[in-house]
Amino acid sequence: MEIRVLPIDKIKAAAYNPRVDLQPGDPEYEKLRRSIEEFGYIDPIIWNERTGNMVGGHQRFKILVNELGREEVEVSVVDLDETQERLLNITLNKVEGRWDDEALAHLLEELQAEAADLGLTGFEADEIESLIEEFTEPPEDQLGDFENRELDTNEFDESQFGCKCPRCGFVFDSEGE
């Protein structure tokens, strides 16, 4: 991988870029801006040296230039023909990993316990709470007192039941109908 520092006037936004052009104030734009401010510029823009086009990183570029005043940016350089460039652009925008929701929930819960700013993750607060709740066991004192025992049908009067299971012969209460 080749990384270069280029002046911003050498980097052209790809006119064909199919992603929505986020604007300041858009939630996703603000999440990305906040992430760059907190963690730095750690995911370089991909730039095609043959065409001068950005292949990936249009939103990061906009934030670096318009919000942070950068006049030069580090880019990862590729050398692609126009067809390969457009294919890579789509691939970069489409191919995303899937979450292991349980592992993500536990990681978010750990970070929450450390009082980390979970807003930096890009997840909304309600998404975080929902994930954590889904995979968190309730405390022992909230589990209830349940007895797992075999049901003895002889304890019940058959007149209380109305529907009979064709498989096992159990007769169910008809009042629920």
Automatic annotation (TrEMBL):
Coiled coil regions, renumbered to chain: none
Gene3D superfamilies in alphabetical order: Conserved hypothetical protein from pyrococcus furiosus pfu- 392566-001, ParB domain (3.90.1530.10)
InterPro entries, sorted: ParB/Sulfiredoxin_sf (IPR036086), ParB_N (IPR003115)
SMART domains to which the protein is assigned, alphabetical: ParB
Domain ParB-like N-terminal residue range list: 4-94
Highest taxon, organism lineage: Bacteria
Protein name as catalogued: ParB N-terminal domain-containing protein
Annotated source species: Paenibacillus alvei
